[in-house]
Amino acid sequence: MSRDRFLALLTMFHLNNDTKAARGQSGYDSLFKIRPVTDTLITKFQDVYTPEEQPTIEEAICPFQGRIFFRLYIKGKPHKYGTKMFELCEAKSGYVYNLDVYTGAHPTNSEHNTALSVVNRSCDKIKGKGHCVYMDRWFSSPKIFDHLWGCKTKAVGTVMSNRKEMPEQAFSGILKKGEKISCQRDHLLAIKWKDIRDVFFLTTAHEDVLVEAPSSRRAHHKNKTSCSVGLQQV
């Protein structure tokens, strides 16, 4: 096949019906041109494999330089331009079990891109199956951990100290390196631990104990919280 013939066919290549609702209209789907592909892939990802106990929710960038309105620039990423995706991955292998492409503000649902909504959609297929979800501080909050606990799913993660329902007054004390302060409410444990700087954790899967673990230099050991060791292992 000649180059010109290939390019001519490529301009006519479609994966979905172009007569869908236009942008700005009710029912518009930003991914409608590739929706059959993404839906099929996610279904296959979930049909052929079941992740182990410790999946993680992560934010990823798919490099892309094309012309789409939801392309983002994120300074700290290896690939700074692309489409942002929320992924539920198996920590051990990196297998992607579920993903959600960020397409900007939802036209009708202002809560669509909140951390709670993203976590709820990402974990929908693993709820109540004995998993413990790990996440970073962008996602985690007491509200999200309570929600997952109600769905019979544990969770662990770092957390911002100013999240709603965090025990700010109890965590106001100054700590020396290796010390911790903790507060527990029913199933939820919040910890402030001093490393080089203050680090805050939430967990519904660990006990309130310090364990001896290797430092980054490997020649020395230091006291760490059990949930921080768990986060390092995933």
Strand order of the largest sheet: 5-6-9-8-7
N- to C-terminal distance: 48 Å
Low-pLDDT segments: none
Indicate the multimeric state. Answer: single chain
Helix content: 10-25%
The tally of structural domains comes to: 2
Q: Note the total helix count.
A: 5
Largest sheet: 5 strands, mixed
Rounded radius of gyration (Å): 21 Å
Beta-strand share of residues: 25-35%
Number of E-type strands? 11
Briefly note the structural class of the backbone: alpha+beta
Task: Identify the overall geometry.
Answer: elongated
- SSE topology string: HHEEEEHEHEEEEEEH
Could you tell me the mean pLDDT?
A: 86
In short:
The chain is α+β, with helices and mostly antiparallel strands and 234 residues long. It is 21% helix and 28% strand. The chain folds into two domains: 95 residues, no CATH class; 105 residues, no CATH class.
How would you sum up this structure, described in words?
The chain is α+β, with helices and mostly antiparallel strands. The chain folds into 2 domains: 32-126, no CATH class; 130-234, no CATH class. The protein has helices spanning 3-11, 35-48, 115-122, 142-150, 226-233, and strands at 55-63, 72-73, 81-90, 96-101, 132-135, 154-158, 180-185, 188-194, 198-203, 210-214, 221-225. A hairpin with a 7-residue loop joins strand 2 (72-73) and strand 3. The longest helix is centred in the N-terminal third of the chain and has 14 residues, at 35-48. The protein is elongated, with a radius of gyration of 21 Å. It starts with a helix and ends with a helix. The relative contact order is 0.10. The model has no long low-confidence stretch (mean pLDDT 86).
